[in-house]
Amino acid sequence: MVVSAALLIRERGAHATAISDVLEHSGAPRGSAYHYFPGGRTQLLCEAVDYAGEHVAAVIAGAAGCRELLDTLIDKYRRQLLETDFRAGCPVVAVSVEAGEQSDRDRMAPVVERAAAVFDRWSGLIAQRLIADGIAADRAREFAVLATSALEGAIVLARVRRDLAPLDVVRRQLHRLLVAELSEGVSQ
């Protein structure tokens, strides 16, 4: 059910994903939602965010170097967009941007906190990879935030435009910056 929730949220958004949709998508019996998610929809959304966060964190942690990390993530997002006809975005972004309505703020606060923690974790893992490749810690942390923001923004633009060009631009520009950071680290 958690995987189904994450998949549905990345395509439809959190508001448009009901527990009944998750049950239908996953094939789980109705009673299982109440058994496994006594906290209701909010708990399910939190766990979907955690799942998506862990999935991407594993990709980041598995990269042998910072260039491979960027290429692997971007290639993954490209495939995901093409395979879903540009419907699939990031479920973590979806729950974050949909939590802005005043009526939803209190109910969605735990979900938004989880989303913030996921983005922080991704940036932290990217920074660790950059530091391991020789980039100074302060520069690595800034680059990691820039990379995370650029990748998420490129996914949004690609979906809206139904075109992969934003991901290609982000790949080229991040690689240029990365080369400059790596050469600066070597010259110090």
From TrEMBL:
HTH tetR-type domain span: 5-45
Entry keyword annotation includes Transcription regulation: yes
Keywords: DNA-binding, Transcription, Transcription regulation
InterPro entries, sorted: Homeodomain-like_sf, HTH_TetR, Tet_transcr_reg_TetR-rel_C_sf, YxaF_TetR_C
GO MF annotations, alphabetized: DNA binding
Residue ranges of domain Transcriptional regulator LmrA/YxaF-like C-terminal in the record: 70-173
A Pfam family recorded for this sequence: TetR_C_13_2
This protein's record includes keyword Amino-acid biosynthesis: no
Protein name, entry field: TetR family transcriptional regulator
Organism: Mycobacterium terramassiliense
High-level lineage: Bacteria, Bacillati, Actinomycetota, Actinomycetes, Mycobacteriales
